[in-house]
Write a structure and sequence with these properties.
This protein is α+β, with helices and mostly antiparallel strands and 521 residues long. Helix content is 61%, strand content 11%. The chain has a single domain, classed as Outer membrane efflux proteins (OEP) (Up-down Bundle). The longest helix is centred in the C-terminal third of the chain and has 70 residues.
Length: 521
């Protein structure tokens, strides 16, 4: 049987990683909010704050403060360098590797081979049962019994009347102490050809089909899990780049703020706010780094790679993927019912059990066999008196037998098999209902992906424009270091949102293909 819960390949992504990518994704926004709260608290306690129009920066101060790097260009350059790496790993390669090394797939392949042998065994049952036997027996000596006296005329000729002399001799059979038997018997189960063997053969074929569909289902799950793990890892790697650069920029701003504070152009509250920003960026980078390590290890384990194997991204992730067409719900559900191997396997399992139940009927009825026997024996019991030589005889007949006590036990066994078949049918119906939710979720994910990507792209464009404006204002002395840091933080958050949207779109496409049963291999 198949557990209807086993069709969901996405549980491990929610609980196995140990770190939630969406929490990491929003951490930069929390950093900006923490900065604002820190500055607001300092102002409420009477600490001096930076005025809206900052004082002009002196020449001496400008010489000690390097011009800020272009955060967007640095991020874009490093992210592009990490993608489409020659010889890097792609989602398709990850899936192929997972299919080649999966122990679950190997187990299901062996089960399919075992089901093949069941078909062979069912076909052999159709052949008449030929039994060969040979035996030798040494008998204990006994006194030959005398059957009476027999009068004989040793010298008489044929048709001679009153021959003389006549003799009286005892009549007895010889006692042969060595007995050798060679026997060949052939039984043709006539009744089983109609009410047992066809049902068992059909059941074995259904078992083979069920094992095959289970293998297909396992291959589909393995490929989907490998692709999702790949995209999760690739997204984590790209997000880590943004987190690491955000941390480095925060450290640079902290150093610059020290110079500005020394020149009297910033307050202690400004410096503490940047320190808080550095702490938030460091925590953000740590979590992103942990996520990369966890997802990379999951990939190595799933692909059976050595722990020291370096993984490189072979796909171009930062590009809008081609998403599958989302069919109408009823059409999608119908397609899934016809294509999902889990459902097909359950259908074949139910049919297999029902045919086994039908085969038990033969044990409730009389059994009819045709019997043939060829016997070569020394002595052969059909020859009387026995002679000390091999004699061959044969026999042919029909035999009907009925073991009455087997009827109650086989009736109970049949009810048990019918109950198992009903349980599998209920399991299949439950899986059908679960498929509606799975298809709905996958379809919504694909539909949402287009809007999410467009929205995230607009967010990146807006964040880039805001960053450029803040950078120009900062260089002109009309914006504070904190304001520039906030702009960079927002740009980092927007880029991570965009990366996450592209990764989620690819995962949504993989889920929809799986939900509809289109990725069976």
């Amino acid at each position: 049987m198949i557990d209807c819960r086993s069709h969901d390949p996405f549980r491990s992504r929610e609980s196995g990683a140990g770190v939630d990518r969406r929490k990491v994704r929003h951490f930069a926004a929390l950093g900006a909010l923490s900065t604002l709260l820190f500055v607001g608290t300092a102002a409420a306690q009477g600490a001096p704050t930076v005025p809206a129009q900052a004082a002009p920066v002196t020449k001496d101060t400008l010489e000690n403060i390097p011009e800020p790097r272009d955060a967007n260009a640095d991020l874009e350059r490093e992210i592009q360098a990490l993608q489409a790496h020659p010889g890097g790993l792609t989602a398709a390669q990850a899936a192929a590797r997972a299919l080649a090394v999966s122990h679950d797939i190997t187990s299901n392949q062996q089960k399919e081979l075992a089901a093949d042998t069941e078909i062979d065994a069912a076909r052999v049952r159709f052949a008449p049962r030929l039994t060969l036997a040979a035996s030798y027996t040494r008998l204990s000596p006994i006194e030959a019994p005398v059957l009476g006296m027999l009068v004989v005329a040793p010298t008489a000729t044929a048709n001679q009347i009153n021959p003389s002399p006549t003799l009286a001799r005892p009549l007895s059979f010889p006692v042969l102490l060595n007995q050798t038997i060679l026997r060949a018997s052939l039984v043709v189960p006539l009744s089983d050809y109609f009410i047992r063997f066809p049902q068992l053969l059909d059941s074995a074929k259904s078992g083979k089909d069920s094992a095959h569909y289970n293998l297909m289902a396992q291959r589909s799950r393995t490929a989907v899990e490998a692709k999702i793990a790949y995209y999760s890892w690739a997204g984590a790697v790209l997000q880590h780049v943004a987190a690491r650069q955000a941390h480095q920029r925060a450290l640079n701003h902290l150093e610059n703020t020290k110079h500005v504070l020394a020149a009297g152009l910033a307050t202690n509250a400004d410096f503490r706010a940047v320190e808080a920003e550095v702490a938030q960026a460091e925590l953000f980078e740590t979590r992103a780094s942990n996520l990369v390590a966890i997802t990379a290890e999951q990939m190595r384990v799933q692909l059976h790679l050595p722990p020291e194997t370096d993984l490189e991204i072979g796909e171009q992730i930062i590009t809008t993927p081609t998403l599958p067409q989302v069919p109408r719900m009823e059409q999608a559900w119908l397609e899934a019912q016809q294509s999902r191997p889990e459902l097909l396997a359950l259908s074949q399992t139910e049919h297999q059990i029902r045919r086994q139940a039908d085969a038990t009927l033969s044990a409730e009825l009389p059994r009819v066999d045709a019997i043939g026997e060829l016997l070569t024996a020394n002595p052969n019991s059909r020859y009387q008196p026995p002679v000390d030589e091999f004699k061959t005889t044969w026999a042919i007949g029909v035999q009907a037998t009925w073991t009455v006590n087997d009827w109650p036990s086989n009736a109970a066994a049949k009810k048990g098999l019918e109950a198992q078949a009903a349980a599998v049918a209920a399991q299949r119906e439950a899986l059908k209902q679960a498929l509606r939710t799975e298809i709905m979720s996958a379809a919504r994910g694909v539909q949402q992906a287009t809007t999410t990507i467009a929205t995230a792209q607009r967010g990146v464009n807006s964040a880039e424009t805001a960053y450029r404006v803040r950078k120009d204002q900062y260089l002109a002395g009309r914006a504070t270091n904190v304001e520039l840091t906030d702009a960079e933080t927002e740009l980092t958050r927007a880029r991570i949102e965009y990366i996450d949207a592209l990764v989620d779109a690819r995962i949504a496409a993989v889920r929809l293909e799986y939900a509809l049963g289109r990725n069976t291999t």
